Amino acid sequence: MPEKEDVSAIDRPLWPAVRQGLLNQCPACGAAPLFQRFLRTGSRCAGCGQSWEHHQADDFPAYIVILLLGHILVPLMIEVNFAFAIPMPVQAVLWPGIALVLAIAMIQPVKGAVIAFQWSRRMNGFAIPKD
């Protein structure tokens, strides 16, 4: 009978896991997608069987996206307004549109990175199982 693998000995390096999460891949194996739908994780990884039901990303990915958008858009708006004379009605459509597109593009990779961070640090339901 094969020996049961000691899960406490399995190393979970942070940066490779976060990179996998950013790329919508399972942080544990990298072989299967992390998300079943746009922001919904599957219950288990199809490649390695890792359970994703215990993650608690909650609102943290949205906070990160808002922080990043502010740091991207505010300097961009200042530079564009300094360099060009764009009419205010155009800007009233332009900047919210850019913010919306960037937010939609960033939310899934950021949520994947947060879940991968939780997994690599053994937070919440990703802790070592007790027999």
Automatic annotation (TrEMBL):
Keywords recorded for this protein, A-Z: Membrane, Transmembrane, Transmembrane helix
InterPro entries tied to this protein: DUF983
Membrane-spanning ranges: 60-86, 92-117
Keyword Transmembrane helix on entry: yes
Top-level taxonomic group: Bacteria
Entry protein name: DUF983 domain-containing protein
Organism per entry: Sphingobium phenoxybenzoativorans
